[in-house]
Amino acid sequence: MNLVSKKITAIVFLAGICMIASNFVPLWRIILDAPQYPEGLKLQIFSNKIGGDVEIINGLNHYIGMKTLHAEEFPEFTFLPYLLVGFGIVAILVALFRRRTLLLLFCLSFVAFGILAMIDFWRWEYVYGHNLDPNAAIIVPGMAYQPPLIGFKQLLNFGAFSIPDIGGWLLVVAGLLILTATVLAYNLLDRFFKKTAPVSVMLISLSIFSCAPSGPEEIKINKDNCSHCKMTIADAHFGAEVITDKGKVFKFDDLRCLIDFIAENPNAVYKSKYVHDFTSNNVLIPVESAHFLQGGSIHSPMGGNTAAFKSADEAKKVQNELGAESASIQQIFK
After folding, report:
1. Which of 55, 211, 274, 283 lies 20 to 30 Å (CA to CA) from residue 182?
2. Spatial distance between the Cα atoms of 264 and 258, rounded to a whole number of angstroms
């Protein structure tokens, strides 16, 4: 039978409400963090306008040669509100007609819309981040200022964090509901998974959209720059890394730089800290479990002169050879 159940009808109807509601709240946000802006600068993108600290961000863009942001320059703002409301109305009509074929066509259309929207957003970020004024006050050769599509990216002394806002998450939920309804309508799952499909699909999607890494991010030697001194990280034995509670990753060429960075940014919440294992090549270990040696013939890039080891035995093996002294984590981070 081509008719779908009342449960599926309710799911599709709820998806339509989410689509319409997304039109009245911000869809996306980009947060810029820097020492001179401890509370951060926020750029919010609605379906028909740009909000947040637009004037301040435009002032900063002027110095680095980026175009200023004006809603009238984005044709998407003229039709996106109607498109979101239109999708919502069509979803409600699909729910009322209860036809599987219509549901499938609508699901494919909404997925295509989501893909095209993300491509267009990436294109917008690319154009603004790469088309720079050659006569700008601040010019860094080879530097582009394209924010991340989603997640975190370091741009000079600014950390850019891009993530869906309320409206964006409403559209994600709407997409998951439509996908779930389509899967259930076509009996693509067995009886057990039918009961848990909405929860399972939601959990999988949230894991995909999660921005917080579960472990350290590899430091790219001779490519990544230190988030504190801005020098290129060239030694794979003294580097360090911190990850904030928002999933932002900051990399350093020396443990000393990490400590100074934390001291200069005391309001941030650091979820985890890592340091290079001295006896390995570009292997990061948790600071809490590391064993430290200081001084002697240990010479790190920025004068911290501290080496970390994953075990006490490895530290003892080279301690006399290096003429170094053992140090506790309390002494390191005093």
Report:
1. 211
2. 10
270-276 and 291-294 beta bridge pairing: unpaired
- What confidence tens digit (pLDDT) does each residue in 226-272 have? 999 999 999 999 999 999 887 889 999 999 999 999 988 888 888 99
Specify the pTM. Answer: 0.59
